[in-house]
Design a protein that fits this description.
- One of its GO terms (biological process) is DNA-templated transcription initiation.
- Belongs to the sigma-54 factor family.
- GO terms for molecular function: DNA binding; DNA-binding transcription activator activity; nucleotidyltransferase activity; sigma factor activity.
- Sigma factors are initiation factors that promote the attachment of RNA polymerase to specific initiation sites and are then released.
- It comes from Cereibacter sphaeroides (strain ATCC 17023 / DSM 158 / JCM 6121 / CCUG 31486 / LMG 2827 / NBRC 12203 / NCIMB 8253 / ATH 2.4.1.) (Rhodobacter sphaeroides).
- The protein has 442 residues and is an alpha+beta fold.
- It has three domains: 164 residues, no CATH class; 138 residues, no CATH class; 64 residues, Homeodomain-like (Arc Repressor Mutant, subunit A, Orthogonal Bundle).
- 50% of the residues lie in helices and 6% in strands.
- The strands form two sheets. Strands 3-2-5-6 form a four-stranded mixed sheet. It has a two-stranded antiparallel ribbon with strand order 1-4.
- Helix 5 packs antiparallel against helix 6.
- It starts with 22 loop residues before the first helix and ends with a helix.
């Protein structure tokens, strides 16, 4: 031991706060982000395990104020009126193959081609591979493909875009030598090089434009006609309406489930089951309180969002105000993570349409002195408006859009415009001009 060094032990005391995440707390957190339909399923699953829990659903939609779009009581009705999407592409083509009268070996080979059909109607595998799988020579496979390409709608079983359009042009009597020449030079058309296309096809501009008008009437993805109908939009969890006292937000009671605690059912259990009864009753009462807490928290957050987004409710996306999770959390008196969970799972119906609650949380952009800061959502909307209103022969560059919006009061950089344009799936100004030439807008 080094001279002068002493060893000794000591105790110190300190307080520390920590949160123990119990199973019930985890469930309560999950309840916050459940939409009404998911909440119903959760309560139902709990009722199957607990004899003292009963799921109660609203008997019928309740009246509410009109919203300018679809009223809440119409959600179930509209969903029930969804059109029959009809057979899928696979079912349709399988039925058509059966009508062709193939023998057993031919039918088996046709099945190989059917299995290779992509959702948009083209073949997704090379002919050599399909011929091998079908046990056919390449010549026999080509002959079988020619028969399959007679199936309606024209263009199915095409191997390329040019072949897909050619099959449709043949069926409609459009396949002139000039039309075939254009199909043989589709890369020039994609590049909007109409002068080069005229030279390659040996024709004048007017004749070429006549072919392009016919070409635009064809469908490059005939299989997409059989896409299943999109699932009905799920009903909103919150409904915004305007009354005599201003804007208000309500829970959508037409889909809101509730928990009934069946305390009377405990009387039928023997005394020996008392521990089980007590534990199950406790769980049932906790679930009822947790669901009520979820509803109240949802209402508080929804009300604060509505209070901050009055401009949007009255005038639309152009007036979407910047708003952060922290601002709403501080106003409501909950943690920021609670606002995040609630907003991520719920839908809100407004006079401007139905949106995910999270879409109202958008960052603020810098503004000139004296101007109100704009939100990212409002600026994206303005970018879309400017592009839609531009002249096809002189589309706005990102620099031009940035200058217009900056002159309107929100400081915007060119790279920010480019980012928002990409988020909106808007091509660049050069690409937009090319598209205008190809579509005949110029």
């Amino acid at each position: 031991m080094t001279p002068g060094m002493q060893l000794y032990t000591a105790q110190s005391f300190a307080q520390r706060q920590s949160l123990v995440v119990t199973a019930q707390l985890q469930q309560a957190i999950c309840l916050l982000q459940m939409p009404n339909a998911e909440l119903s399923s959760f309560i139902e699953s709990q009722s199957e395990e607990n004899p003292f829990i009963e799921l109660r659903l609203p008997p019928a939609p309740v009246p509410s104020a009109p919203l300018g779009k679809t009223a809440p009581e119409d959600w179930d009705r509209v969903a029930g009126l969804a059109a029959d999407p009809g057979p899928s592409l696979y079912v349709h083509v399988a039925a058509e193959i059966a009508r062709l009268g193939f023998d057993a070996p031919q039918a088996a080979a046709a099945q190989v081609f059917l299995d290779a059909l992509e959702p948009w109607g083209w073949l997704g595998r090379p002919m050599e591979e399909l011929a091998f799988r079908a046990g056919l020579s390449l010549e026999a496979a080509e002959a079988l493909l020619a028969r399959l390409q007679k199936i309606e709608p024209a263009g199915l079983f095409a191997r390329t875009l040019a072949e897909c359009l050619q099959l449709q042009a043949e069926e409609q009597g459009l396949l002139t030598p000039l039309f075939a020449a254009v199909l043989a030079h589709l890369p020039l058309l994609a590049a909007a090089d109409l002068k080069g296309l005229c030279r390659a096809c040996g024709c004048g501009m007017e004749d070429l434009k006549a072919v392009l008008r016919s070409l635009r009437g064809l469908n490059p993805k005939p299989g997409a006609l059989f896409d299943a109908a999109p699932p009905p939009q799920r009903p909103p969890d919150l409904v915004v309406s305007r009354g005599a006292e201003g804007w208000r937000v309500d829970l959508n009671r037409s889909t809101l489930p509730s928990v009934v605690v069946r305390s009377d059912a405990a009387e039928g259990f023997a005394r020996t089951a008392a521990p089980y009864v007590g534990e199950r009753l406790s769980v049932a009462k906790w679930l009822a309180r947790a669901v009520e807490h979820r509803n109240q928290t949802t209402l508080k957050i929804g009300a604060e969002v509505v209070r901050r987004q009055r401009g949007f409710l009255e005038e639309g996306l152009a007036r979407m105000a910047p708003m952060t999770l922290r601002e709403v959390a501080d106003a409501v008196g909950v943690h920021e993570s609670t606002v995040s969970r609630v907003s991520s799972g719920l839908m809100i119906a407004t006079p401007q349409g139905t949106f995910p609650l999270k879409s109202f949380f958008t960052a603020a952009l810098a503004a000139r002195e004296g101007d109100t800061a704009g939100s990212a959502a409002a600026v994206r909307h303005r970018v879309r408006q400017l592009v839609q209103a531009e002249s096809p022969d002189d589309p706005l560059s990102d620099d031009a859009i940035a200058k217009i919006i900056s002159d309107e009061g929100v400081t915007l950089a060119r790279r920010t415009v480019a980012k928002y344009r990409e988020q909106l799936n808007i091509p660049s100004s050069v690409q937009r001009r090319r598209q205008a030439i190809v579509t005949g807008a110029l």
